[in-house]
Amino acid sequence: MNLIHTTLVHKALAPQRKSGGKSPTLILLHGRGANEDDLLGLAQYLDERLLIVSARAPFPFQFGGGFTWYEIEEVGKPESKMFAESYRKLQQFFHDVKNGYPVEPTKVFFGGFSMGAIMSYALALTKPADVAGVIANSGYVPEENGLEFQWNLIKGKPFFVAHGKYDPVIPVQFGQRAKELLQNAHADLTYREYEMGHQIGEESLNDMMQWLTKHV
In 152-171, which positions are buried (b, 16+ CB within 10 angstroms) versus exposed (e)? Predict the structure, then answer.
């Protein structure tokens, strides 16, 4: 489909099954060192009603190509200036997508892997009224980055959180912390741990597909 001009380079796939009018939408955010093509391969497994938009992180990744949302000071601590810039651009991108594509505004989901999951949390927890739900694979909630999370508006908000038990990049304890935070806020949480590392596995993909179809 024709692409709109916005703050982030992206690719968009039209729904395979149009129901007329505006479409439920999934915005995909990739991990460190990847690009907008990385998660598009999931599209063939997802609900055919979805308009799928996959964004590219704004900063070139210095090691091995690809792009990144920020540099890492240590696990759980993004470099603050890059994180803030990516968050600002993602906010504007979200606005542009909603206004530039035939998006059903009450049915916009975010789906992220690793850094992309972290950015999905950042956007959804600061703008919960605008986000229908979040799929967070192998990420964490960025708690100490100056963002004002609206935990009082998270009650009943759908989240699907997946993490590998043997994740060597972002240990499973970070997923468990996200679970704790979301449960305390009374989110509609589906939390799963899998026999895998830092990845989206067949089992987690299948569970994610079912969750998304249910909420679309």
Answer: eebeebbbbbbbbeebeebb
Asked if 56 contacts 35 with a C-beta cutoff of 8 angstroms, the reply is yes
Query: What DSSP string describes 48-109?
Result: TT-EEEEEPPSEE-TTTSSEES--EEETTEE-HHHHHHHHHHHHHHHHHHHHHS-EEEEEEE
CATH architecture of 10-215: 3-Layer(aba) Sandwich (3.40)
**Domains in the chain: boundaries:** 10-215
Using one digit for the tens of pLDDT, what is the confidence trace for 102-135?
Answer: 999 999 999 999 999 999 999 999 999 999 999 9
pTM: 0.96
Q: Which helix (H) or strand (E) holds 119?
A: helix 115-126
Q: Are 161 and 194 contacting, i.e. CB atoms less than 8 angstroms apart?
A: no
